[in-house]
Design brief:
By secondary structure, the protein is α+β, with helices and mostly antiparallel strands. The protein has 2 domains: 436 residues, MFS general substrate transporter like domains (Growth Hormone, Chain: A); 58 residues. Helices cover 70% and strands 8% of the residues. The protein contains 21 helices and 6 strands. Helix 3 packs antiparallel against helix 19 and helix 5 packs antiparallel against helix 7. The longest helix is centred in the middle third of the chain and has 36 residues. It is globular, with a radius of gyration of 23 Å.
């Protein structure tokens, strides 16, 4: 086969694998991106803060079950094949996401609403647990050894791009309708759209061939009969699984979720930044930061995976407190001068189909740095709710984008090389199973629990920075283990390969 033909094949493989994985991440993350609204729709409204934490916990459940999906679909992928396994996970994810958009609210069906959401989040988590390992393995097994970090880094961009697309779709939907319509039913549209995206991705993926390395093993009758036993029952391989988890994936998981999801949660819930503006901040930072996944993946082919990942964890752990303190100061009203002449009160009465009304009153204060603070009181026949909303001026907006971008940069350092790192750690016959489990425990459990744990810590202590203790501690523990126990060696191809311990 000519080099040109090989190049065409690898890019076809990357495109098809990345498109499907991006859509699965999109499906998975619109839940987190809409967590504030979902907490109002699917949980009792007697305590908004507890409802929000319950929503984050339901969001985290999808992460917690990802290791089980890794076991189920990893075993299937090592026995049946990579291609058909991640076709199955794609359909499960798309169907679950679409169904969440159909669930009636808590006011309509009561406790059944959060139960149905929980069940569908479990299905999403199981599907994603099988997707990533299959896509990363599939691309890696098509890649030449000396370019493996570079080619697999395109898969690494999909998680961030999936979040970016989810934010983009949510923002576009929100801008195209009134806030009342969006909060009433428009939030369902991003969930419904997933069915069309999944069908397009399925059409692209169905045309792929099986991974050449796996196809060769299958032709020779050397595929694993019991991937779970070989992965976790074999002492030497189990040591590698544990090293992958506690020396890399655990720290990568908390850095990833701090820089993306906790940053959004902190902007919206702790700083009270207005919904559209907070999403714009994250979206721009993600868009600017995404190319660095590919840069650090490419760099890892030259200097090794370990150096880059460990540096990312160290810098993140040292920088988080100063970064979030700087973010928080942008909305510190004690340091701002109010322009009293611009104080105003706006009110509206919105009729409802049942004959009731929604009465809204907004007390709006403007400050000399263009910060606008609205205290919005909403009165319905059932309750009275007071909410604070902050819109920052241009200078602070740019500054917040920079601060979030720096966090995304840390994410690219730990996440860009990790697919190649995990693939190189395990033999082909049990690679899907062995790499998927530590990755999804590190990301799903240690990372996925982060927004809920951090938000709860802030609420309990009253300290806006208390939530950072968790990711900093996990990143430092992982850093120490990784520095001591992960060894790398240079090969003739000029790339770094993890050696067995």
């Amino acid at each position: 086969m000519s080099s040109t033909k090989q190049q065409q094949n690898i890019w076809q493989v990357i495109f098809a694998s990345s498109a499907g994985t991006l859509i699965e991440w999109y499906d998975f993350y619109i839940f987190g991106s809409l967590s504030l609204i979902l907490s109002e729709k699917f949980f009792p409204d007697s305590n908004p803060t507890l409802s929000y934490i319950a929503t984050l916990a339901t969001f985290a459940v999808g992460f917690i079950v990802r290791p089980f999906g890794a076991i189920v679909f990893g075993r299937l992928g090592d026995m049946v094949g990579r291609k058909y396994t991640f076709l199955l996970t794609l359909l499960i994810m798309g169907g679950s996401t679409f169904a969440i958009g159909l669930i009636p609210s808590y006011k309509t069906i009561g406790i059944l609403a959060p139960i149905l959401v929980l069940i569908l989040r479990l299905a999403q988590g199981l599907a994603l647990g099988g997707e990533y390992g299959g896509a990363a393995t599939y691309v890696a097994e098509h890649s030449p050894a000396h370019r493996r970090g570079y080619y697999t880094s395109f898969i690494q961009t999909t998680a961030t791009l999936g979040l970016f697309v989810s934010l983009g779709v949510i923002l576009a939907t929100r801008i195209c309708m009134s806030p009342e319509s969006f909060n009433d039913w428009g939030w369902r549209i991003p969930f419904w759209l997933s069915v069309f995206l999944v069908l397009m991705s399925y059409y692209i993926r169905i045309k792929l061939h099986e991974s050449p390395l796996f196809a060769q093993l299958k032709a020779e009758g050397k595929t694993s009969k019991n991937p779970l036993k070989e992965s976790f029952g074999n002492k030497e391989n189990l040591k590698l699984v544990l090293l992958a988890l506690f020396g890399a994936a655990m720290g990568q998981g908390v850095v990833w979720y701090t820089g993306q999801f906790y940053a959004l949660s902190f902007l919206q819930k702790t700083m009270n930044i207005e919904f559209v503006q907070s999403n714009i901040i994250i979206a721009i930072a993600l868009l600017v930061g995404t190319p660095f996944f590919i840069y650090f993946g490419h760099l890892s082919d030259k200097i090794g995976r370990k150096k880059i990942m460990m540096a990312g964890m160290l810098i993140a752990a040292l920088a988080y407190f100063p970064i979030y303190n700087a973010m928080d100061k942008t909305v510190d009203l004690s340091a701002k001068q109010e322009v009293t002449a611009m104080y105003r009160v706006e009110g509206s009465i919105i009729p409802q189909e049942d004959g009731s009304t929604i009465e809204k009153t907004a007390k709006i204060r403007t400050y000399s740095d263009s910060t606008v603070v609205s205290e919005i009181t909403t009165i319905t026949k059932d309750k009275k709710e007071v909410k604070k909303e902050v819109t920052v001026g241009t200078n602070n907006l740019i500054w917040l984008i920079v601060l979030v971008f720096i966090q995304v940069l840390f994410v690219t350092m730990v996440y860009g090389p990790i697919a190649a790192f995990l693939v190189e750690l395990f033999p082909t016959r049990i690679r899907y199973t062995s790499m998927s489990l530590p990755y999804h425990i590190g990301n799903g459990v240690f990372g996925g629990l982060l927004p809920a744990i951090a938000t709860l810590m802030v609420q309990r202590t009253g300290n806006h920075l208390a939530g950072l203790v968790y990711p900093v501690a996990i990143a430092l523990i992982c850093l120490v283990i990784g520095v001591i126990f992960i060894k790398e060696k240079k090969t003739e191809d000029g790339y770094a390969e993890v050696s067995e311990v």
